[in-house]
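Following up on my earlier message about heme C. Here are the inputs again, as you asked, copied directly from the submission form:
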Amino acid sequence: MTRQPHLRLLIAAAALAGLTWFGRPSRGVEPGGVQIALQTSARTSDSGEASSSAVSVDQSQYVGVAGCAAANCHGRDGSRGVLGSEYSIWIQDDPHARAYTDLFNETSQGIAAALRLDKPAHQAKLCLNCHAPQSDPPFDGPVAAHGTLLDGVSCESCHGAASRWLGPHVRRDWKQKSPAEKAEFGFRDTKDLWVRGKVCADCHVGEPGRDVNHDLYAAGHPRLFFELSAFNANIPAHWSRDADRRREGSDAASSFEAKLWEVGQVASVEAAVDLLIHRAKSASEDIPAFASGGDYPHAETIAVWPELAETGCFACHHDLSSPSWRQSRGYAGRMPGSSPWQSWLTPLLSDVTTQFDGGSNPVASLASEMAKPYPDRTAVVSLATDAQRQLEQLGQTINQQKLSSDQVAALLSRVAQHSPDLAAQNWDAATQSYLALVALHQGLTDARGNRNGVPEGHDRGINNRLEEVLGLLAFPAGADSPGSFNADTTQRLQERLQAIQQSLSSGR
Ligand code: HEC
Ligand code: HEC
Ligand code: HEC
Ligand code: HEC
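Thanks, got it. Here's what our run produced:
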């Protein structure tokens, strides 16, 4: 596998930092010919696939993107701004539009072969539930009853299955309806940041029926490592980013970035906890046929227990050396050699909660149970259910507030203060603190209204240091992991992070 997903995120994250100073990311248009060729072959192979499994009557169904693409609906050419051109922006520039066709590429074929799937990736629900969903959960709809697979991750994947809202949403009274009334038609309110965070996390972290587990990773799937504010900035917006901010009131720009970051932290962990509950409850005790040489169970998603992908990847995947910097670093309260649960998603959760209840960690007990070699499944379900309830409450509380610039500045300085410790833990925690600093600082820079969004003086200095941090986090050429992450990298990261912290507190 030659792709470097992590590196790509980091580059993408740099683009986030540069969103307003270097202009928007360039438009990467797919060569049309390739897409059309794929579409033809896909149509042929899907035609025999219409499955007989029943769709429950009260569940909304997907109608397909064709219903949105007309020039007088969402298919304008963009010359008069984004409004009305949502389809055109998505089909030309949005990576989601090629999520299905990517299931034909070499990496996907390699994954299907390594897993010994009994059908190609582009027909396996295991992949389609995220790359070309045909229904909202619980995914009991038929595979490709109509040619909507080609849409990949399209309008309905985020805005909700449209069979019941397509008609009503073009009527005049639709705009008068409240989000709750719209939800009754199966329409999701993506303006609501908590809803948005959960929608993205359902695929980018996972949920029951959508599971990139270690089997898929070991077979070659790029690592999922989601952070809402970076990912939100990295899809070409088919909506007005200004309108997104304006909803936040007086300190709109800083409040928006900070809330999006906070909500993203909480929504991601909530999704991981949801998936954990599912695995703990329904993973079979039997060793799947796969282990003894059979096919992967019918290319449907399965729950595996215990699931390696819940542990930080680089806790297992690293060199062995003596003396080891990990031994001198210590294990942050864990037993030496135990598993760090969700090291990508959880390190900054206490920074989010400080504002509300002095920095409690809603997943602390769950993480200790999960750090045991054989976590108790019943205990896990009970701890996780409790954590999920707290996370849901926290997400909604954050969502309801509007943050002043002063509050955001306080949050930024808290994260900056914490970041040298996080950088000492591992690459995951270091990178999450980098992304947090970028998001929070970007919001404040925007709020200060620097001319053309170009950061000046002090802001520019902080941006330069953030770029140095990024340089230290990037993977070495040809590697798919931070191979050289060690005591030396840690120290250099800490120096830069401390400089950022000082610069923030002195205002220089
Ligand atoms: C139905 C599942 C699904 C949902 C919902 C979803 N995504 Fe994605 N997303 C994907 C898949 C699959 C890909 C990979 C597409 C490809 O390249 O083949 C992707 C790719 C991306 C990428 C590009 C990543 C990269 O490394 O280049 C970004 C950014 C992104 N999504 C952001 C978001 C955001 C923000 C949301 C919520 C508003 C969201 N996604 C909702 C499935 C989803
Ligand atoms: C839980 C949802 C989910 C499932 C299940 C899933 N994927 Fe993905 N896949 C994603 C997301 C999200 C991305 C984008 C990752 C990123 O860049 O952050 C992605 C990226 C990819 C990519 C890289 C796309 C590129 O840009 O080249 C390939 C290839 C891929 N997936 C293949 C598969 C195959 C094959 C399967 C089934 C065996 C599968 N995926 C199952 C969510 C999923
Ligand atoms: C990856 C998730 C995702 C996909 C796919 C997606 N959208 Fe969106 N869409 C959003 C988000 C997030 C917003 C911004 C919040 C909002 O205005 O609802 C948005 C906003 C919009 C808006 C603006 C609403 C307003 O009041 O300004 C329209 C219209 C829209 N999308 C239509 C579409 C259409 C049509 C498609 C398919 C061609 C599509 N979307 C695909 C996530 C998505
Ligand atoms: C508890 C230990 C453990 C954790 C945690 C773990 N892995 Fe693995 N991984 C393994 C083992 C064991 C193998 C099989 C190695 C072999 O067969 O030589 C493996 C194999 C792989 C492979 C196959 C290629 C290779 O270089 O070995 C990839 C890719 C991979 N893991 C990615 C990941 C990712 C991504 C994560 C985090 C989401 C992760 N792993 C977490 C133990 C782990």
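One observation from looking it over: The pocket of heme C (ligand 1) is lined by residues 5, 8-9, 95-96, 98-99, 102, 130-131, 133, 153, 157-158, 196, 199-200, 202-204, 231-232, 234-235 (CB under 6 Å). Hope that helps, and feel free to reply on this thread.
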